[in-house]
Design brief:
Number of helices: 11
CATH architecture of the largest domain: Alpha-Beta Barrel
Number of strands: 9
Number of domains: 2
Oligomer: single chain
Structural class: alpha/beta
CATH class of the largest domain: Alpha Beta
Length: 339
């Protein structure tokens, strides 16, 4: 089959549950590559999640540093809510009076999409209810509150949800996105932070209110959840998630692939963990790991290859060398899987 789709069109086929012409590779870009999708916050939210940190719309301070590769995190031990029963006195919804949505949509599209044939305009709706709540209280107090003061937490989540619905509605109306992004990490490397039952009872119905709006516009839904979150995936598929990333290898990806097929696209599936011999590694062994990943996950569509060396030191020459082998092998394989 000779390819005739643009990279973006091919990528969006996967997001829509269709079989692509080839396996999309590295959606977040690489050396000399435009990303296959933007993973962007709309301008109204500010840049608090960027490399400089800042204050989010609710008043949570985010900090960053080279030890976490300049990923912004809520400032430790500086939580704005210490007693969830007092949330009405502390948590105040942002006021966006006079905000120019049309101008913001134009500016953000130009900012995040340099090549419209390559990059899909995927924007966040800020329905990140779990992480936002944890940002208010921190993990220790926040998780305790979920279990001990469930009714209060739910009332706070409903208050927060109005903000998420406001952002989502305007993003859909003015941005006309090609994908909607929900970034809400709810799991550690080993297991979810809360039980699947509580997740389904407390968070899923509120996510659904936002995602129903997105589905009505036939916009694919991207769900970012790191770690071993496979226990939570069935609920998210039920309410319309189309693409899951980063789909880390702690999860039983083969079982998930077999269960959902093209209904849930697996975006990720590969990690090269440095052996004790690092940086002395065998190129053929690295390439074979890529082949094995394609063999397990690429058949019949529903797969986007993404991954590399598990290191935050992206500029290390050895990381770049091995990463080059990974990308090269993935690109070779991507063109032959569906022939």
């Amino acid at each position: 089959m000779s390819a005739h789709l643009t990279p973006k069109e091919n990528f969006l086929r996967v997001a829509k549950g269709e079989t692509p012409e080839w396996v999309p590779v590295s959606p977040f870009g690489g050396p000399g590559m435009e990303p296959l999708m933007s993973m962007a916050d709309p301008k109204i939210l500010g840049s608090f999640r960027g490399p400089g940190g800042g204050v989010d719309p609710w008043g949570v301070t985010f900090v960053t540093g080279d030890d976490i590769d300049f990923a912004a995190l809520p400032k430790p031990n500086d939580f704005i809510l210490t007693d969830v029963t007092k949330w009405r006195d502390v948590i105040k919804a942002p006021d966006y009076t006079g905000f120019d949505w049309e101008a913001a949509a134009r500016e953000d599209r130009a900012k995040y999409v340099k090549d419209p044939d390559q990059t899909a305009f995927v924007i966040a709706g800020y329905a990140d209810l779990f992480q936002q709540f944890i940002g208010f209280m921190g993990f220790t107090e926040g998780l305790c509150a979920i279990y001990e003061e469930t009714e209060e937490v739910e009332e706070l989540l409903d208050y927060m949800l109005e903000h998420s619905l406001y952002i989502t509605k305007n993003v859909l109306q003015y941005y006309k996105p090609e994908g909607y992004y929900l970034l809400d990490d709810t799991a550690s490397k080993l297991q979810p932070f809360i039980s699947p039952r509580l997740f389904e009872e407390i968070f899923v119905p509120r996510y659904k209110q936002c995602l129903d709006l997105v589905r009505e516009e036939n916009v694919p839904i991207f769900y970012h959840n790191c770690g071993r979150c496979e226990d939570l995936i069935p609920s998210m598929v039920d309410i319309g998630v189309n693409v899951w990333d980063p789909a880390q290898i702690e999860n039983d990806l083969v079982a998930i692939k077999n269960k959902y097929g093209k209904k849930l696209a697996i975006n990720g599936g590969f990690e090269y963990r440095m052996p004790i011999t690092w940086p002395n590694v065998d190129e053929e062994e690295v390439r074979q790991q890529v082949r094995d990943t394609f063999d397990r996950l690429a058949g019949d569509g529903g797969f986007i290859f993404s991954g590399g060396v598990t290191s935050l030191d992206y500029f290390d020459p050895d990381v770049q060398r091995v990463g080059g082998w990974i990308r090269d092998e993935a690109k070779k394989l991507s063109k032959v899987v569906y022939k």
